[in-house]
């Protein structure tokens, strides 16, 4: 796929995005796997917006493994300098994933959010960190040690990003989180 000429890759990518824009459970997993693999082609940055438009729909998918697959694709994009900032439009959708996702999807979502926080500018890191802090606390008791560790590390990062008037609100979040964090002080993970 990577060795095919750019015009053919672009056509394939556009067809996959078109196929995925209409929910069809018959082909959606296969089409999404191909689309995610094609995100590695850096010369398809013009077509990237089409993928970013359909990702929110598949982050909410009930199909087993679909949200995790999409999150892995977004993680891949956040690691690409040419595409990372464009993924910020998905930030609210990824924060939603922390609420009811399985452990695998939660772990990937936490990694994506960690990357995205580094991309924010101006007052946005502080506001986003404050909004994120409340969503992280329930993950401190997740069954997965990886999710627990990633959520605690991200919580630590969010504490450092809050500035100005939001500091008082963040202090309240920290106080509310002290007891759950204390319970995990001696976890082996």
How would you characterize the overall build of this protein?
With 189 residues, the chain is mainly α. It is 67% helix and 0% strand. It contains nine helices and no strands. Helix 2 (28-38) packs parallel to helix 4, helix 6 (103-119) packs parallel to helix 8 and helix 7 (124-136) packs antiparallel against helix 8 (145-161). It is elongated, with a radius of gyration of 18 Å.
Give the secondary structure arrangement, pairings included.
Elements: H1 6-21, H2 28-38, H3 48-59, H4 66-78, H5 91-100, H6 103-119, H7 124-136, H8 145-161, H9 166-183
Helix pairs in contact: 1-2, 2-4, 4-6, 5-6, 6-8, 7-8, 7-9
Give the overall shape, derived from the CA principal axes.
elongated
Order of helices and strands: HHHHHHHHH
Based on DSSP secondary structure assignment, what is the total number of beta strands?
0
C-alpha end-to-end distance:
40 Å
Helix content: 55-70%
> For the residues shown, what is the average pLDDT?
87
What percent strand? under 5%
Low-confidence stretches: none
Q: Work out the helix count.
A: 9
Radius of gyration: 18 Å
SS content category: mainly alpha
Largest sheet: none
Keywords:
single chain, mainly alpha, 9 helices, 189 residues
Provide a short characterization of the protein structure.
By secondary structure, the chain is mainly α. The chain has helices spanning 6-21, 28-38, 48-59, 66-78, 91-100, 103-119, 124-136, 145-161, 166-183. The protein is 67% helix and 0% strand.
């Amino acid at each position: 796929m990577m060795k095919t000429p750019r015009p053919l890759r672009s056509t394939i990518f556009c067809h996959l995005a078109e196929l995925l824009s209409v929910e069809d459970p018959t082909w959606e997993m296969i089409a999404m796997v191909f689309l995610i693999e094609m995100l590695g082609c850096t010369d398809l940055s013009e077509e990237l917006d089409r993928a970013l438009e359909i990702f929110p729909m598949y982050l909410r998918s009930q199909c087993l493994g679909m949200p995790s697959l999409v999150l892995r694709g977004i993680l891949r994009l956040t690691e690409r300098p040419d595409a990372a900032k464009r993924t910020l439009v998905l930030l609210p959708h990824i924060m939603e994933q922390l609420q009811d996702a399985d452990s695998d999807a939660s772990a990937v979502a936490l990694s994506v959010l960690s990357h995205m926080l580094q991309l924010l500018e101006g007052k946005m890191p502080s506001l986003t960190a404050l909004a994120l802090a409340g969503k992280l606390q329930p993950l401190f008791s997740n069954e997965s040690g990886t999710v627990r560790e990633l959520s605690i590390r991200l919580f630590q990062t969010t504490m450092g990003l809050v500035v100005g008037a939001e500091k008082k609100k963040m202090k309240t979040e920290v106080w509310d989180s002290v007891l759950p964090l204390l319970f995990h002080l001696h976890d082996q993970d």
